[in-house]
Structure prediction request, 171 residues.
Amino acid sequence: MWGLRVSAGPTNSYRRSRLMDSRLTSKERMFRALQGEQPDVVPAAPAYPGLFLADFERAFYVEQYRLRMRGRSRYPIDHGEDTRFRVQAKYQSHGIFKTRPDWIEVSRGASRAWADRTDIVLQDGVLCYEDKVSGVRLPMRGAALPPRRRARGRQLRYGRTGDRPWTWCGG
Prediction:
């Protein structure tokens, strides 16, 4: 699979390379694999940090809008600025680790159509997304980043970030 020779038994050089490779860190193994070299084992990178950091990322994202509002009750979303806020929030959320991970998991961002159709509004001290077409509001702290449809759920969630208006669904 990784270009190993098949012989009656392992050669001394093969044994030495396996012994030396066993001291590689997971980062070194990943770099070897990405460079087309032969790591001692197939490297793997679990995606759990993204799940663990979601609440921190959302909090940092919302806080950037809270600072941007500066006493306003309504703020139109600019797609470029929103993208920067999302990136800064993602990076900032990784700062909770004693040592930042070697990689950052990224996902698809919100569409320009969503940004054009959405304002941030302050309602009873809570920042909310507001769909300009339907008037539907959703608290930012309860929304996924970026907002997206969920097939099921007990909480109210809104629909696609594409060209269709938001839809409410609940369980």
Confidence is low (pLDDT under 50) at residues 4-9, 148-171. The longest strand covers residues 118-123. The beta strands are 74-76, 118-123, 126-131, 137-139. The two ends are 48 Å apart (CA to CA).
